[in-house]
Write a structure and sequence with these properties.
Length: about 375
């Protein structure tokens, strides 16, 4: 079963056709800075190679409380996902626009929605619940949903495969305690045990948690209330600043981690501060995830920054020695995809994994369509 994976991001639309072994047969990336996808451009992109798909798997950011696994796309699902758009206004409309455009282009190919929130449906109540009035929580479904679930799910799937031969980890793979660090323009951590998410840093929206490229991460809510009081800052301006003008960009006028690291190494104070703030929040988050797991066996870096910034990995690990994390300088510097960069004697293994949301979507799509009663 060849699966066309459709991944609508904040500024691009990625199309990849994967075979049964999760190899990419063909791929295309389109600019999609707005919620709408150009139907003509999409039609051109789908012909001829990408259109030879037996199924389509769509990345959908938010599934709410109802959708906790991959789901066949039908009119009822489409209406329900539209109603969830206000929970992820920057991402959901673009995902749904791509879904509609691809469905028009390939009307006879079954389509499956795969949710970024679904992997975190296993969060225990203590991790998922906000200390807010009960009537608010019940009326509006206020809870921690978590995001980047497709990336974290791939980490949960791939890590035991890579570590299967290590003597110190040859116990039941389901006992592995993994902290997954998805570090890209958006960033989140996940505490994984037994292939299940037990805690994560993003919450009701993708704004909570780590410092990101342009997003602030966690901020004292009292500070935000103070800004909103007496119209110091409008709600619209506040939302725009938290999403688009904060994070690394707000700290040093650059959202590109490569530039931030380079400028910091050349002694530029704003860039140095930005990097230190980023790493401070990252180390604290890793420690919190390890606490949720009751210890740590594997630390995994993935995503654009996680895969491509040896300095971020090294400096994060330097502050995690108390968790028995230690990197080998040469391995870390030369790491490619799916590499062990741990120091030889380190008890905790540290991996660099290629982000394969496309593979996870393809696997979930096939599993759903081949399940008994799917009609496929």
């Amino acid at each position: 079963m060849r699966v066309l994976v459709v991944n609508a991001g904040s500024s691009s639309l990625k199309l990849s056709l994967l075979d049964e072994h999760e190899r990419v047969i063909a791929a295309r990336e389109l600019d999609a800075p707005r919620a709408q996808v150009d139907p003509g451009e999409l039609s051109d992109a789908l012909s001829p190679e990408l259109s030879h798909a037996d199924a389509v798997g769509h990345r959908i950011v938010h599934g709410g409380e109802r959708y906790r696994g991959a789901t066949l796309v039908d009119p009822e699902l489409r209406r329900a996902l539209g109603a969830l758009a206000d929970l992820a206004p920057l991402h959901q409309p673009k995902s749904l626009a791509a879904l509609d455009a691809v469905s028009r282009a390939l009307p006879d190919v079954p389509a499956v929605a795969c949710f970024d929130t679904a992997f975190h449906a296993t969060l225990p109540p203590a991790a998922a619940t906000y200390a807010l009035p009960q009537e608010w929580r019940e009326r509006w479904g206020l809870r921690r949903y978590g995001f980047h679930g497709l990336s974290h799910a791939w980490v949960a799937r791939r890590t035991p495969q890579l570590l299967a031969g290590l003597p110190q980890l040859q116990r039941d793979p389901s006992a592995l305690r993994i902290v997954s660090c998805h570090l890209g323009a958006g960033a989140s951590l996940c505490a994984i045990r037994g292939g299940r998410s037990l805690d994560t840093t993003m919450g009701f929206t993708p704004l909570e948690g780590l410092v990101m490229a342009t997003r602030a991460g966690s901020v004292d809510p009292g500070l935000l209330l103070w800004l909103a009081e007496d119209r110091r800052v409008s709600v619209t301006e506040l939302a725009d600043a938290l999403e688009h003008r904060s994070g690394l960009l707000g700290l040093c006028a650059s959202a590109d981690m490569r530039e931030v690291v380079s400028r910091a190494n050349h002694g530029e104070e704003p860039a140095r501060l930005a990097l230190e703030v980023y790493l401070h929040r990252l180390r604290g988050g890793v420690a919190a995830m390890a606490a949720a797991l009751g210890g740590l066996d594997v630390l995994v870096f993935t995503g654009g920054v996680g895969e491509r910034s040896p300095e971020v990995r090294a400096r994060a690990a330097d502050g995690l020695g108390f968790l028995e994390v230690a990197l080998d300088d040469r391995r870390n510097r030369d790491a490619g995809a799916d590499a062990d960069v741990s120091a030889p004697a380190a008890r905790v293994r540290t991996l660099v994994l290629a982000a394969r949301e496309d593979a996870e979507i393809a696997l979930q799509t096939r599993a759903l369509l081949r399940a008994p009663g799917s009609g496929s």
